Amino acid sequence: MIYYSLNHNAPKVSFREAVVNGLAPDKGLYFPSEIKSLPDAFFEKIEEMDHAEIAFEAIKQFVGEDIPENDLKDIVREVLSFDFPVNEVEERVHVLELYHGPTLAFKDVGARFMARCLGYFNKNKDTREKVTVLVATSGDTGGAVASGFYEVEGVEVVILYPSGKVSDIQEKQLTTLGKNISAIEVEGTFDDCQAMVKKAFLDREFEGKRTLTSANSINVARWLPQMFYYFFAYKTLKSQGRDIVFSVPSGNFGNICAGMMAQKLGLPVHHFVTGTNANKIVPDYLKTGNYITQPSVATISNAMDVGAPSNFVRIQQIYDNDLETLRSHLSGYSYSDDETREAMQYLFKSHDYIADPHGAIGYLALKEFLQENDNSIGVFLETAHPVKFLDVIPENIASQIQLPEPIQALLHKEKKAEKISTYQQLKRWLILN
Ligand SMILES: *Cc1c(COP(=O)(O)O)cnc(C)c1O
Prior knowledge:
There is one protein chain. With 433 residues, this protein is an alpha/beta fold. The protein has a domain of 201 residues: 3-Layer(aba) Sandwich (Rossmann fold). 42% of the residues lie in helices and 16% in strands. The strands form 3 sheets. A 6-stranded mixed beta sheet has the order 4-5-13-10-11-12, with helices on both faces. It has a 5-stranded parallel beta sheet with strand order 9-6-7-8-14, sandwiched between helices. The protein has a 3-stranded antiparallel beta sheet with strand order 2-1-3. α11 links the parallel β10 and β11. α3 packs across α4 and α4 packs antiparallel against α5. The chain is globular and about 60 Å long. Bound molecules: pyridoxal-5'-phosphate. The site of pyridoxal-5'-phosphate has 15 residues, from α11.
């Protein structure tokens, strides 16, 4: 598969180069040059296929010849070693739980797939050429990347996080793994971490010492595997014979954009709905036709506090950069923190269901759409386990949440992190280690 840059000012590349580069040299996002629908037979017999078989069929054209089919099958099977349950919450409303992976968030799928692809590409390199993945995290991304890359040969991971500004659980997820995962605790903010990472990528003095790369969410190997679970949900609900609507709580719009790619492959999706918090650039655009990025606003669904959604250019490309076409496929709604808390309370009291703040927004958006569309059934994506957001979940609900087994074990492990406060310290550490 050939990928081109959506800024149209960079060389075309293969899947392998797109994964290694992350972003194109003209700072554009990579996009596949061709999207071929899957055959009707695939959708007719989807019930007979397991998750890894479905995922392999969905992803193989996007990888092409860069990974042989048998290796790709192994990768996909390893990535998908956990459940993706779909449950009915109320009439016509289902929840797709994406939090049964190792770090309890949907980002596990993309991080694990990208890690194994990079590992495959670096397998036979000598140690001097080892790739170092350098990432800054404000919480969720770092954990998913750390766990996804853990023990992947040929790849080292260095994660920068702001001291005292991530939750206890998140800090343990970053700092207790060891082996090829190192944590750097920065005295500063997330923006300071991000600035150090950017500086390192431009620093010529690492040449010949370390090859630095990013595990950013715009990487095609993190974006595309997020298609998989839309197929899994369809497999579960197909026998109902109803139109299916997906509601996706969104920040950078990578997750929903992957669903749209699944639709391009022929997945029968009736409509997409996006729910956002106060960072409502996309819902506003759908309403007014004006796309206006904004500085982000802090909310209780903080993984969606994004004022300039990075994947939106891919969505524009999928729908021919045409607002009316986009509107016929996507509806968007936004909610305040109070509305989000009310939705968590309603789900808990009326349906005995505990949603996290992101999933609660997905639920609200789905309900709003279904009110005017009686023929559809809906699925909202629950993007993280509520235990990850205990401090912003109303107390009566939070007290009912049990720590999952892997998290309990984690809390007893010892934190290991290098404390720094300047770029020079980071550089010294990267050169000496
Ligand atoms: C990252 C994240 C989101 C937003 O996903 P995008 O692909 O950026 O739209 C939503 N919920 C949770 C819990 C997340 O971690």
